[in-house]
Amino acid sequence: MLKAVVLDGYTLNPGDLDWSPLKELVDVTVYDRTTYSLDEVALVIERAKDVDIILTNKTPIPEEAINELPKLKYIGMLSTGFDVVDVKAAKEHNIVVTNIPSYGTDTVSQMAIALLLEICHHVGSHSEAVKRGDWTNNADWCFWNYPLIELSGKTMGIVGYGRIGQATGRIAQALGMKVLAFDHYKDEGLESESMKYADLDELYASSDVISLHCPLTEENRELINKESIKRMKDGVIILNNSRGPLINEVDLAEALNNGKVGGAGLDVVSTEPIKKNNPLLTAKNCIITPHISWATKEARLRLFNTAVENVKLFLEDNPTNVVNK
């Protein structure tokens, strides 16, 4: 039986899932956490030095580590993204790298809408106000601490119209919104009275809400910046539960503070965990959650089952979801 290590298993499985399906396939050691820093690669090497298989979510596997792991045959991502692995170095060492491509579509799109609805109604803040006694002591029969926003009839611009973008768009349309979608690959069969494709200029100019659902590339890094924000409607709402570096955070914070951007709902930031000096922490009308769009139990179970299936197929010499062919 091949030996395996899970370098950072806690986030995927804090105790509500069962590792036994993986243990039936390989002799596995599970660590809750190893490191998120490239400066601590020695610990990665120490924990993986005798194994054939590594499973990782956010623990980096750089070339420096790969060079020191001669037994390693397989790296299985516990995520869709694989940028923490030097896939080129892995290929040069004949190491297969796989990912989990589509476990979170419904969960991530649901979270995008949750962020939007929180901006529109501030449910959490109003609940806290009631529990504080503000309603009990209020002179009127109701009150609200923020402007309340109705979405029906407004336009959502979706940047990246793949599986998650489309799922988000369907929910937006169910709320009575119109959808403008930007994507390099257009499926014109998706267009309807309430959804059409647009270029970025039209999307920026016409959208009341802009939601990001694209992978991070060098082309779209800091896509949301001072110049693109100038082309947007005054009071636009910006959502991002895709990748943090899609946004220039200094520029977004400035636009939130001067009112050009009416609100932002973010589940990702440029460096995670978020740094104390991130300007969005003190920006007006900015909701930030700790990268939890993917983390419902249902989605984590799908991820885990796919990861186990990836390992099983690798052991059968029929690997799937390979990212470094």
Automatic annotation (TrEMBL):
Keywords annotated in UniProt: Lyase, NAD, Oxidoreductase
Q: Which Gene Ontology terms cover its molecular function? A: hydroxypyruvate reductase (NADH) activity; lyase activity
Q: Name one Pfam family in it.
A: 2-Hacid_dh
- Its Enzyme Commission number(s) read 1.1.1.29
The record places domain D-isomer specific 2-hydroxyacid dehydrogenase catalytic at 19-324
Question: Quick check: keyword Manganese in the entry?
Answer: no
Q: Which InterPro entries match?
A: D-iso_2-hydroxyacid_DH_PdxB, D-isomer_2_OHA_DH_cat_dom, D-isomer_DH_CS, D-isomer_DH_CS1, D-isomer_DH_NAD-bd, NAD(P)-bd_dom_sf
Q: What highest taxon heads this organism's lineage?
A: Bacteria
Show where the D-isomer specific 2-hydroxyacid dehydrogenase NAD-binding domain sits.
113-293
Q: Which PROSITE patterns match?
A: D_2_HYDROXYACID_DH_1, D_2_HYDROXYACID_DH_2, D_2_HYDROXYACID_DH_3
> Record's family?
Belongs to the D-isomer specific 2-hydroxyacid dehydrogenase family.
> What is the designated name of this protein?
Glycerate dehydrogenase
